[in-house]
Design brief:
It is built from 27 helices and ten strands. It is of the alpha/beta class. It starts with a strand and ends in a 15-residue tail after the last helix. Strand 8 and strand 9 form a beta hairpin. The strands form three sheets. Strands 5, 6, 7, 8, 9 and 10 form a six-stranded mixed sheet that branches. It has a two-stranded antiparallel sheet with strand order 1-2.
């Protein structure tokens, strides 16, 4: 169900204003109400919050027909229906005026980057909901945290310095209205000294730079805010560890000092954050062992490889053993396990079960952990195929960590697979502003254009990426698919043949060639390739890819059967099926629609109201 109001307005003081034509998903509205309820603007205003919830609920139920002043006085303010006189009692009007003021304050500060906005036009009691499309075009204050340099005589302090930098980053990503470059991008400039060039590369107006050295009681941290336009220092702070202060406690204190500095010295680029409250820093462990093991694991996970995620599991389990209440470590372990599922052919179901258990415990310990909510959203969408719950979780992740790149990129990927291409494009653009150097994310962003039918844009972007990193298998596969999609079969064949030569251990090249054979009428050769792939014991053929070849051969029943197997095999590509143009020929087959619905997916092409030009997009994703 979605909330959408008619443009027709009835006369009278309580008639609804002309509402936005956007259909607002229920999950989006629920998440926005949760954000408002948890905001500083509404924490101490239970009556106004109660009124807002009532207005939204009535608007959903019946278009606001019962939103009269008398009804509000009785239902919300508890007035006596026998004695209330709207001509004399102004309590509803006063409460509404204060509610409008608080909403305005909320959207100017903590709600600056909300996806939707709830409006209460003067003279009306019916709320109006609108998508905030301008959010993607606006330019928030921006910052990157460079890795602190180790000026102590102890090489082992290198990892601790990185941990302090991560602590600062994790604190800042929770500040509303602030764009924070990811640690992955910022840490690439560990050995660079041209701060203005760094700022330009990362697209940020301000940098945090600093060092850790020996102090009176062991350690001293010197941190500076630097304006990238001219390299001038805006603010600096020097902190010494207290006698006997544990390293994790000192790291936390440094991070809190930096965020407090933001409050006192607002960035000179973009709109001020309206002195929003200092965000709670990420919850680190008070155990030195747990903290050290956690940072070691995060270092391994930065490689984004199956080996790196597998090697991170042991230190993360050690961190949890040392501190069972360490929510960040549990969330990181869940993330490593989920990524192993995505990168492992025919993964064991125990990986996902363990991830769910760790994630549930992390959220139980810390219900405001943004990265855990974002991961919960990914699991709900990619594996449970529960889109309403997934979107709700993604939005909670963004609410608690507005600059968490993973929350935006994972949400963008899920939006894309639900056919909401404009929203996906917006989220990817914002995610890329946080992680401007991530080529994988650029490839996924190009996939939005490919699924949406903008083949020229997809071709230009993927060709650019292929020139930068010719050996990137995802880019190569998507570029080959783009040629296939556009009907350039000779270019597609050459690209898939190269994939088969360069990456013989994976099946994508042969799968693409089988599709081309089928499209060119060489059905015998296509079936030969498919039979060889199914019988090859050295390589694993993902069921989704088998379904693609069957679809090209117009073998609908077999394609549907292999897609069903894909769902059961925990293949994350299964959620691509509703938007993958390979299966356009199955759209009118009721068995295809029934299979999607049986597995929690929807026929999103019906909602879009148009068919893609040419069937053929590969479903490729790495989380």
């Amino acid at each position: 169900m979605t909330v959408k109001f008619s443009d027709a307005a009835a006369p009278g003081p309580t008639a609804p204003p002309r509402a936005s034509g956007d259909a607002i998903p229920d999950s989006l509205l629920v998440a926005e109400l949760e954000r408002i309820a948890a905001s500083d603007a509404f924490k101490r205003s239970p009556l106004q919050l109660k009124l807002l919830r009532h207005l939204v609920r009535e608007a959903e139920r019946g278009g606001g027909r019962h939103l009269t002043e008398t009804a509000l006085a009785i239902d919300v303010l508890g007035a006596d229906p026998r004695r209330f006189d709207a001509a004399r009692d102004t309590s509803v009007r006063v409460t509404m005026r204060r509610l409008r003021q608080r909403l305005a304050r909320y959207y100017a500060d903590e709600g600056a980057w909300s996806t939707i906005e709830i409006e209460l036009p003067v003279g009306h009691y019916q709320p109006r909901f609108r998508m905030r499309r301008e959010r993607a075009a606006a330019k928030p204050p921006s910052i990157a945290v460079l890795p602190l340099r180790n000026f102590t005589s102890e090489p082992v302090r290198e990892a601790w310095c990185d941990g302090v930098s991560e602590e600062i980053t994790d604190a800042l990503i929770q500040v509303p209205g602030l764009r924070v470059a990811t640690r992955t991008s910022a840490f690439r400039f560990r050995h660079e000294n041209d701060l203005r060039a760094i700022g330009k590369s990362l697209g940020v107006a301000t940098l945090i730079d600093g060092s850790v050295q020996g102090g009176q009681h062991g350690l001293r941290a010197v941190v500076q805010w630097i304006r990238t336009s001219d390299g001038n220092h805006v603010w600096s702070s020097t902190l010494d560890a207290d006698p006997g202060e544990a390293d994790p406690a000192f790291a936390l204190r440094v991070a809190q000092s930096v965020v407090a500095g933001l409050q006192r010295h607002l960035l000179d680029h973009g709109s001020p954050t309206q002195q929003s409250a200092i965000a709670r820093s990420a919850r680190r462990s008070t155990s030195d062992i747990a903290d050290e093991r956690y940072h070691s694991a995060r270092y391994l996970m930065r490689a984004q490889t199956a080996d790196g995620y597998a090697r991170a599991i042991e230190p993360l389990r050690a961190a949890i053993a040392a501190d069972p209440e360490f929510a960040l470590a549990r969330s990181a372990l869940a993330h490593a396990l989920v990524n192993l599922v995505g990168l492992t052919l025919a993964p064991p179901a125990t990986l996902l079960a363990d991830a769910r258990s760790e994630l549930a415990r992390a959220l139980e310990i810390d219900p405001r952990l943004g990265e855990a909510h974002a991961l919960d959203g990914f699991i709900a969408h990619a594996f449970d195929h529960d889109w309403p719950r997934a979107e709700h979780a993604f939005l909670r992740g963004i609410r608690f960590a507005p600059s968490l790149c993973y929350a935006h990129s994972a949400y963008a990927w899920a939006l894309m697979m639900n056919g909401r291409f404009e929203d996906a494009d917006s989220e990817y653009r914002y995610a890329r502003s946080l992680e401007p150097l991530d080529l994988k994310m650029r490839a996924h962003h190009a996939l939005v254009a490919l699924y949406a039918g903008d083949d020229d844009r997809a071709l230009a972007e993927l060709s650019s990426l292929a020139a930068i990193e010719p050996g990137n298998v995802i880019v190569a596969a998507l570029l080959a698919t783009t040629h296939l999609w556009r009907g350039s079969l000779d270019d597609a064949r050459a690209a898939f043949e190269k994939l088969a030569r360069d990456h013989p251990a994976i099946t994508i090249g042969e799968v693409g060639l089988a599709q081309i054979d089928a499209l060119e009428g060489r059905t015998k050769e296509a079936r030969r390739r498919l039979s060889a792939l199914k019988g090859d014991e050295r390589r694993y053929l993902p069921p989704y890819q088998a379904a693609m070849i069957h679809a090209r051969l117009d073998e609908h029943a077999d394609a549907i059967d292999w897609l069903e197997r894909s769902s059961h095999a925990l293949d994350m590509n299964f959620v691509c099926a509703p938007v993958d143009r390979t299966f356009t020929g199955l759209h009118d087959d009721p068995n295809f629609v029934a299979m999607l619905e049986r597995n929690g997916l929807r026929a999103v092409w019906k909602a879009r109201g148009r068919r893609p030009r040419d069937p053929g997009a590969q479903g490729i994703h790495t989380n």
